[in-house]
Amino acid sequence: MDENFLLHNSTAEKLYHHYAKDMPIIDYHCHLQPEEIYENKQYNNIAEVWLYGDHYKWRAMRSNGVDEAYITGNASDYEKFLAWAKTVPMLIGNPLYNWTHLELQRFFDIYDCLNEETAPAIWEKVNAKLNSGDFGARDFIHKSNVKVVCTTDDPVDDLTYHHKLQEEKDFPVKVVPGFRPDKALAINGDGFPSYVKALEKASDMEIDSYQAYLKALQSRVAFFHSVGGRVSDHAIDTMMYAKATEEEAAQFFADARKGNKVSLEDEKKFRSHTLTFLGKEYAKRGWVMQYHINALRNNNTRMFEKLGPDTGYDAMNDEDIAKPLVSLLDSLDKADALPKTVLYSLNPNDNETIASIIGSFQGGGIPGKIQFGTAWWFNDTKSGMLAQMQALANMGVFSQFIGMLTDSRSFLSYPRHEYFRRLVCSFIGEWVENGEVPDDIDFLGKIVQGIAYENAKAYFDFGLE
Questions:
Q1: Please, are residues 261 and 270 in contact by the beta-carbon 8 Å criterion?
Q2: What CATH number is attached to the domain comprising 129?
Q3: Sorting pLDDT into bands at 50, 70 and 90, what band is 465?
């Protein structure tokens, strides 16, 4: 992992070192906590910043035979770190191996390989830096040259810490909320009636009908917009669409409000009508709408009951997405209300499907209005990123790609952008070396800078100069 790591030809080296390396970062989707950014959270040791809540690492440790006590259990932080150190050497071929060492190098100036033998010294060296006062949450953001952090927030959130961050005079990074209304669409969820009550309180209005429900959601979109929100995000684990009237959706809402379950077909109609309504609200305000599709969550019932969601027991789903996705996008386009949209699927078998679908809804003079989002979750590997880029290049305009995001809960995840940028440069460099595109470094360098930063800067209305 030297300076030319992943750069497999001289063109790639030039593109990365002279064009991509020093570009800023727009992290337009992540799961960082705004409270931790505001408070500039400090860490006592590397386990806190590295292992707490990181289900990528937890899955790997389980697969390496580590007992749960050393993952989410009562073992000490040092014991958990040592269990991770023993796991890392076994992860060759997994991006976690490279990301682990990039994070040690970029943030802590440690170039030793992490293993059982080096773990004690690395533990001491990293912890000394963490306790120096210069390695809090904000410091990691600064060190990574991040310009925008877009968090993930429920419509009922009061966005207190976003308000406080906007009042900060000495923190130049924009921290903006991302509107994530998954619970508002989960009409068959056990907590749906309680969620409606929470929305009543947050919107300060009585919700006595579906129409009032939509008005409350509309008010929360407007509230998020007032606090700098310009992005929505939807976890659509199963892509569904069924045309419905507002009267039908209102009846389904009334049934669910009483705690009753509705049929799958009725759920499809409610979700479709509500998503279409929300899409129109996003379009009015120039927002970007994101759909994360085809995740199969909480597969291990026993461990879900013990640990809850987001603990490493998810997988790729394999539901068909083409017809319902096209129908949903078309319902918005027919009303001339399709917002800028980013589509992701957790199943790489959908790559070509999405790459072809986005071409059906481009236009309006907006470069890359509908985006095929970067390789996500199980796909943000070397081969997964290259496969996503190849599908986009084959069928779309790769040069307008808005690039990488972290989708992470860790402040140490920003070197993933470096990993991605190196792959982009190598990907383009191979075309040059093969004589498929001209050896025009300045022109290609501008394309690389676009994918790294400039395209996202133009695409999202974050107010960057």
A1: no
A2: 1.10.2020.10
A3: confident
Indicate the angle between helix axes 441-449 and 415-433, nearest 10 degrees: 150
| Mean pLDDT value of segment 367-381 | 97
What DSSP line would sit under 173-191, residue for residue?
A: SEEE-EE--HHHH-TTSTT
How far apart (Å, rounded) are the C-alpha atoms in residues 357 and 337? 17
Cβ count near 442 (within 10 Å): 8
**Using a CB cutoff of 8 Å and minimum separation of 24, what contacts does 396-400 make?**
396/355, 396/358, 396/359, 396/368, 396/372, 397/367, 397/368, 398/451, 399/447, 399/450, 399/451, 400/367, 400/368, 400/450, 400/455
Query: Which tens digit of pLDDT belongs to each residue from 321-364?
Result: 999 999 999 999 999 999 999 999 999 999 999 999 999 999 99
Determine the 3-state secondary structure of 166 from DSSP: helix
Q: Confidence class of residue 18 from pLDDT cuts 50, 70 and 90? A: very high
**Which of 92, 107, 135 is a domain's end point?**
135
User: Rounded to whole angstroms, how far apart are CA atoms 96 and 87?
Assistant: 10
Q: Assess contact for 202 and 158: CB atoms under 8 A.
A: yes
Identify whether the C-beta of residue 186 lies closer than 8 Å to the C-beta of residue 154. no
CA-wise closest residue to 168 among 34, 42, 49, 43: 34
- What gap in Å lies between CA 268 and CA 285, rounded to an integer? 26
Asked if residue 2 belongs to a domain, the reply is no
**For position 2, what pLDDT does the model report?**
95
Number of domains in the chain: 2
What is the torsion angle, in degrees rounded to the nearest 10, for the CA atoms of residue 67, residue 77, residue 136 and residue 138?
Answer: 10
| Residue owning tokens 């770190």 | 81
Q: Mapping DSSP to helix (H, G, I), strand (E, B) and coil, where does residue 276 land?
A: helix
The answer to whether 231 and 286 are in contact (CB under 8 A) is no
Contacts of 74 (CB under 8 A, 6+ apart): none
| CATH code, domain with 396 | 3.20.20.140
> Is the separation of the CB atoms in 291 and 324 below 8 Å?
no
Same domain, 100 and 170: no
Instruction: Give residue 19's Cα distance to chain centre.
Output: 25
Is the pLDDT at 169 greater than 90, yes or no?
A: no
User: In sequence order, what are the beta bridge partners of 148?
Assistant: 26, 174
Asked if residue 320 belongs to a domain, the reply is yes
Instruction: Please tell me whether residues 413 and 434 are part of one structural domain.
Output: yes
Query: What is the spatial distance between Cα 156 and Cα 135, in angstroms, rounded to a whole number?
Result: 32
